[in-house]
Amino acid sequence: MITEWTGLPLSIGISGANTHDSQALIPLVKGIPPIRSRRGRRRRRPHKLHADKGYDYNHLRRWLSSGGIETSQRLGRHRWTIERTMAWLAGCRRLHRRYERKADHFLAFTSIACTLICYRRLTK
């Protein structure tokens, strides 16, 4: 899951329990929709990325820098925003335990939960 600094989910994905988190970074960054700006054209990618130490690989840093994305030198510093977003998702009873057998169904319910989280946070 990729979130902005306030903890709103920008891009989500699911994977198996035995896959490393670093393998999902590139598809998640590519899945971020264009971001509106007040002036100029829309940004396709974020300006900066904060991640934990599980994503600290040279090939990922090179890929991010080739796309114009800065990475934090102190990885893991802003991990609390991800943990808070995961706690918001854990509040959804349907997602607390995975009842669906198909991954597409689970991803759909996760998308609905993320939409509700964004709606609640943005209407405050």
Automatic annotation (TrEMBL):
InterPro entries reported in the protein's UniProt record: Transposase_11
Coiled coil: none
Domain of life, per lineage: Bacteria
GO MF term list: DNA binding; transposase activity
GO biological process annotation, one example: DNA transposition
Entry protein name: IS5 family transposase
Domain Transposase IS4-like intervals: 6-70, 73-116
